[in-house]
Amino acid sequence: MTVSGGAGALGVDPEQLTDDDLLRELRRLHDMRHETLRHGSDDALDAHTVRTGDLEAEYLRRWPQREVDPERLRAGARSRG
Q1: Closest by alpha carbon to 62, among 6, 8, 14, 24?
Q2: Is residue 52 pLDDT above 80, yes or no?
Q3: Which helix (H) or strand (E) holds 72?
Q4: pLDDT tens figures, 4-31
């Protein structure tokens, strides 16, 4: 592993990941978030937060016009209520 650009967090630089690897890493981190929050040390939670931010920033850089579900917008929420 190499050090990513964020605060010394370990992992492959997000810019070096293939699209598939980036998406797989994001899925894995999001799946692990709850366990890290509940049971990880403060250092583990800090590292997890930095790594997640690095990967999410890379995702948004690659896909700035990502699909947005209209149901996830305020208007969509209002139409449900």
Answers
A1: 14
A2: yes
A3: none
A4: 444 454 689 999 999 999 999 999 999 9
- Residues 6+ positions from 51 with CB-CB distance below 8 Å: 4, 6, 9, 10, 11, 29
The rounded distance, in Å, linking the Cα atoms of 31 and 28 is: 5
| Encoded tokens for 30 | 């999001």
Sign of the Cα torsion 32, 38, 39, 40 reads positive
pTM across the whole model: 0.76
Number of neighbours of residue 66 by Cβ within 10 angstroms:
8
Q: Interhelix angle for 42-62 vs 19-39, to 10°? A: 150
Ranges of each domain in the chain? 11-61
pLDDT, position 59: 97
Are 13 and 4 spatial neighbours (Cβ–Cβ below 8 Å)? Answer: yes
